[in-house]
Amino acid sequence: METSKSYRELFTFGEDYGTSEFKFGPSSLGDVPDAIESRGYFPDITEATYGVYGFQTPRPIIVGPEVSEHLESRSDLTERLVHPMTSGLIESSDDRAWTVVKEITRYGLKRYAPSTAGFDGFNCVSALFSGSPRYMYEKIFAIHEEINKEEGRKLVKNVTVIPQPLAVAIAQKAITCTVIEAGHGNTQITPISKAVINSSLLTLNRGGADVDALAGEILRDAGFGDLAKERKFVKIFKETVGLIPMDLKKVMENDHEEKFRFVFKIPGTRISVDLGGAAWQRFLLGEFFFNPENEIFQSYYKRGFRRPTDSYLKGDVVAGTTNLIEAVTKSIERCSFEIQANLYHNILLSGGNFAWRVPPGLEEYATDAATKIMTMLEASGVNNAKVITTTNPQYNVWQGLIVYGLYLPENYEWKWERQEGWILVTQ
Ligand SMILES: Nc1ncnc2c1ncn2[C@@H]1O[C@H](COP(=O)(O)OP(=O)(O)OP(=O)(O)O)[C@@H](O)[C@H]1O
Ligand SMILES: [Mg+2]
């Protein structure tokens, strides 16, 4: 162990509970955390045979990379493969979901806990989505406490929770900014002026998962209905072929463009997806996230494709299909006019749902998230906006958690009124 480093520098541990991935690890990992999928598998194993498979208990749960080795038929997936969060929220009574959260937390802590003498538990900084109710904070605190007890050793010394967008602002050292955090489950639009401006916080109930749902429809329409049932397949398909259109109309006017064509294959299998003349639909995936109100999507809604659900901004209903820019301006316009220009001038995009690529040769039709937002803002009358996609957008929250943990004084106790400070975890 290096002795020149303080306890905090050595043992600050970030935990970003994403809907799709749990990003975790100690500060020593640098800029890129470890990550596992936010899911747990409850295998169908009887009490008679669990020992045969190397499990210690009759009701095991599997998390981490091992999950893939245990999956059985497609029909089992829905019932026994549990993704604990939808849109960032977990119901307080959803025991299976909380069990998965506990197991992914334990997995992360055990993976990095050193056996050195000076180790007295990590200072864990956890991130939840910004609209998390109080019971979610309490559950996260309780889970850390229980893990210490169950493991019979101190893996956790202190724990705290902060909202994901605040972690992004901290990672970017931004004092006045608007963070748009779009992950798998939701999109958090958060004006920040030193702290989160709570009255302007707007969470749209749509994220990468909703784009996946549309990708599923497109696959079904093209005759790949069986593959469309597997979440992970659909997600990889979307990430590989999905594009943000600069202008969807122009794409549709040139829908037979050879350049749009692709063949999507899974190596080592016979799986191959070719949409043929419908390849232009790859642009619908990007458009859907930015503008699900576009009339092209009406035909999908009419045949039962589920619209993203509504959310609330201080009592006002915000439709799940609200165009992203309308939501951003709505949120910023709740702040004093004196800081609005600054909030537009430092818009930070974080989260995997902003990681869309522009493949070489398609620059005329496809664009990146920051350019799309800037163009849409300009069209809506905001001229001086500056939009930045953070480097490694999926890992920004975790980076901010580490910085926060390094600066939060160890003797600063948790205060519910301010939702900051450490909860001391006993063994
Ligand atoms: N290159 C890409 N193009 C499009 N989408 C992508 C790309 N890479 C990742 N994504 C999507 O980003 C989402 C995951 O992002 P992220 O890890 O930030 O989410 P999360 O933290 O798990 O979820 P949340 O923050 O909503 O709880 C997934 O929907 C994933 O498919
Ligand atoms: Mg996230």
Quick take:
The protein is of the alpha+beta class. Helix content is 34%, strand content 18%.
Describe the protein in words.
The structure is a single chain. The model has no long low-confidence stretch (mean pLDDT 91). This protein is 34% helix and 18% strand. Among the domains are: 188 residues, Nucleotidyltransferase, domain 5; 100 residues, Nucleotidyltransferase, domain 5, CATH 3.30.420.570. By secondary structure, the chain is an alpha+beta fold. The chain binds adenosine-5'-triphosphate (ATP) and magnesium ion. Magnesium ion (MG) binds next to loops.
Note the topology.
Elements: H1 7-11, E1 12-17, E2 21-26, E3 34-37, E4 40-41, H2 67-70, H3 74-80, E5 81-82, H4 95-112, E6 122-128, H5 134-151, E7 156-163, H6 164-171, E8 176-182, E9 187-193, E10 195-196, E11 202-204, H7 208-221, H8 231-241, E12 244-245, H9 248-253, E13 264-265, E14 272-273, H10 282-290, H11 298-302, E15 311-313, E16 316-318, H12 324-332, H13 337-345, E17 347-350, E18 366-367, H14 369-379, E19 387-389, H15 396-407, E20 423-424
Parallel strand pairs: 1-6, 6-7, 8-17, 17-19
Antiparallel strand pairs: 1-2, 2-3, 4-5, 7-20, 8-9, 9-10, 9-11, 12-18, 13-14, 15-16
Helix pairs in contact: 4-5, 6-15, 7-8, 7-10
The structure holds adenosine-5'-triphosphate (ATP) and magnesium ion (MG).
